[in-house]
UniProtKB/TrEMBL annotation:
Ranges of residues in domain Aldehyde dehydrogenase: 13-469
Catalyzed reactions per annotation: an aldehyde + NAD(+) + H2O = a carboxylate + NADH + 2 H(+)
Pfam annotation, one family: Aldedh
EC class: oxidoreductase
UniProt source species: Sulfitobacter brevis
The EC number(s) this enzyme carries: 1.2.1.3
Protein name: aldehyde dehydrogenase (NAD(+))
Top-level taxonomic group: Bacteria
Family: Belongs to the aldehyde dehydrogenase family.
């Protein structure tokens, strides 16, 4: 069993102020695979103090110096990628092949994207002939990250914060902390100055709340549930710190009558990816009535043919969901769905042959309407709801009838329609015809999916203040 109790504070690994062991569970086996410590207020204060102490110096370092250190971090990340893949596979259940490619690859891809955006990024510009506009680091940043895409989210926060001259305290998910611990080792090996990057493990009510309310924290960047995002916003309000939130989603995938013949198949596969544990998953499939029966059949076939197995096995299967609490929540929502809609595939319990581990059957509900629980709540598991529609207007209305607004999807060969619908969907992102987003594209949502944007230039700007200076020109 791995023992990872120490925190990384002020450039060194240090023991917790007081012992508070927390078991890390392998979701494929339900057995303890590691132990960490949950931090106390003393640990939080020590990390914030270190970050505050390092800020004045780090914020004044040359842009190229910061870029060189991030480049070195990228080299270390790539060299130790197998360690990182195994850590994420163990802690949150991503099948090892997926962990090696998508989970690890997301981190390196975003670091590369930030370095590219940083090359031409200007921290000052002339507003008039005598007035200058400056972009300056906001200060000490608390970064609170989730368990579902560990490196994706850590990199999307840590790298732009450090690049812009901020100092940080990272609180990763206590459920999946091993990858963050490893990332801290990479930062140390790269040679970042003491106090610039700090890591404290803890839970939301403890370290998370302490960071959110801390008077010496200038910004909180959080990825997780909408419920937790609301709590963080309230905790941060007393100190009026900036809060950037990337929260939940209930993405609509609109399949028009002229969509690609395999649009429903691709949509179902996308929904089940990462065991459905993605905030931008297309979990509501809206299908034109002329293609509806075909889509239900196709999606059900995908569900029935999706292999589910342990994360340690190689292959293209999906793994377990992350925890017992998550498993129980999903089972409860499947049970509710079975009382509301038609179960077309999957259902309650583990897949055949699996009697331990938090494994969920890929599940498809048909004849869903947008008033059903299964269509409104974020399941965060491999569960797809299929909803029929007749007109473009109806499809747009259904898609927008949700408290969320992260990612929606449009499938049609009609270019004008595709653009028209994309403009009317109330979400931060609209993916059309399976075309993925470019490196550095802004990631974020509307409504209860949060605020702020991550990635590329947009991600850098999140961590900056804007200052106007008059009389800049020499007199």
């Amino acid at each position: 069993m791995l023992e990872k109790r120490d925190f990384y504070i002020n450039g060194a690994w240090v023991a917790p102020a007081k012992a508070n062991d927390f078991a890390v569970i392998d979701p494929s086996t339900e057995e303890q695979c590691a132990v960490i410590s949950l931090g106390s207020e003393a640990d939080t204060n020590a990390a914030v103090k270190a970050a505050r102490g390092a800020f004045d110096s780090w914020s004044q370092t040359a842009k190229q110096e910061r870029a060189d250190l991030i480049g070195k971090l990228l080299d270390i990340y790539k060299a130790r990628s197998e360690e990182m893949a195994k850590a994420m596979s163990l802690e949150m259940g991503a099948p090892i092949d997926m962990s090696r490619t998508a989970q690890v690859g997301a981190g390196s891809w975003h670091i590369q994207g930030f370095l590219k955006a940083f090359e031409d990024f200007s921290f000052e510009e002339d507003y008039t002939s005598s007035e200058k506009t400056l972009r300056e680091p906001i200060g000490v940043c608390a970064l609170i990250t989730p368990w579902n895409w560990p490196m994706n989210q850590i990199v999307l926060k840590v790298i732009p914060a450090l690049a812009t001259g901020c100092t940080v305290v990272l609180k990763p998910s206590e459920i999946a902390p091993l990858s963050a611990h490893l990332f801290a080792e990479f930062v140390h090996e790269a040679g970042f100055p003491a106090g610039v990057f700090n890591l404290v493990n803890g839970d939301g009510p403890g370290v998370g709340s302490q960071l959110s309310a801390h008077p010496d924290v200038d910004m909180v960047s959080f990825t997780g549930s909408t419920r937790a995002g609301i709590a963080i916003s309230k905790a941060a309000a007393d100190t009026l710190k900036r809060v950037s939130l990337e929260l939940g989603g209930k993405g609509a995938n609109i399949i028009f009558e002229d969509a690609h013949p395999k649009a429903a198949k691709a949509g179902a596969m996308h929904c089940f990816r990462n065991s459905g544990q993605s905030c931008n998953a297309p979990t509501r499939m809206l299908v034109h009535k002329s293609r509806y029966d075909e889509a239900v059949e196709m999606a059900s076939e995908v569900a029935n043919n999706t292999h589910v197995g342990p994360a340690s096995d190689e292959g293209k299967h999906i793994g377990p969901v992350v925890s017992e609490a998550q498993f129980n929540k999903i089972q409860g929502l499947i049970e509710t769905g079975m009382s509301e809609a038609r179960l077309a595939a999957g259902g309650l319990g583990r897949p055949d042959g699996l009697n331990r581990g938090y494994f969920v059957k890929p599940t498809v509900f048909a004849d869903v309407n947008n008033d059903m629980t299964i269509a409104r709540e974020e399941v965060f598991g491999p569960v797809l709801s299929i909803i029929p529609f007749e007109t473009e207007e109806e499809a747009i209305a259904i898609a927008n009838d949700t408290p969320y607004g992260l990612t929606n999807y449009v499938q049609t060969e009609d270019t004008d329609k595709r653009r028209r619908v994309a403009r009317r969907l109330r979400s931060g992102m609209v993916e059309t015809n399976g075309k993925g987003f470019a490196q550095g594209s802004p990631f974020g949502g509307y409504k209860q999916s949060g605020n702020g944007r991550e990635g590329g230039v947009f991600g850098l700007e999140e961590f900056l203040e804007v200052k106007a200076v008059s009389g800049w020109a020499a007199e």
